[in-house]
Amino acid sequence: GENVEQHPSTLSVQEGDSAVIKCTYSDSASNYFPWYKQELGKRPQLIIDIRSNVGEKKDQRIAVTLNKTAKHFSLHITETQPEDSAVYFCAASKGYNTDKLIFGTGTRLQVFP
Amino acid sequence: ETGVTQTPRHLVMGMTNKKSLKCEQHLGHNAMYWYKQSAKKPLELMFVYNFKEQTENNSVPSRFSPECPNSSHLFLHLHTLQPEDSALYLCASSQEGSGHSPLHFGNGTRLTVT
Fold it and tell me: Can you say whether the dihedral through the CA atoms of B48, B49, B55, B57 is positive or negative?
């Protein structure tokens, strides 16, 4: 079955710097790659997602890139702010339903002022 | 946001107790999920209900028993749990049938088994 690996497990950056989190997946049939953000004591929330028919997607300071050949995808956060501090989870699935999502182990991002 | 609500927020139970976790979604979604979140582990999918029918049961021990009486409510009945079952249990919902749909999570129930 699908396996998703996520790196790094922790990431500390200075406010204003960029942060990059990388994930690799094993199943070449995977076609949907969402990213969830979980602030301390709160629920995970979808922040951005990408489908296999595109290589990059941007939403303000957040972007996701996908390399299908290498089977990896990355989250890029530019101009980081203290409120970006959270745990970020990548996930991958195939088919057309969300019930097959496989999550990575998460990255704890700390942004220092 | 009150789209998916879970009760209780915290639960402490002994290994011989029986308790239930409750989840309710107000988003009109047709699929509901139970996930287990443990430290330094990926979110683990436990059960999926699609149109009230259970479609996934990822080798979850029988001491966890789900119930979905309608598309808005989901329960997780617990009995004779083990200390390693201590974790955050997250409920989620989504709208299936027209492509990938975001999961909307509740705030979770922090379960401690003593």
Answer: positive
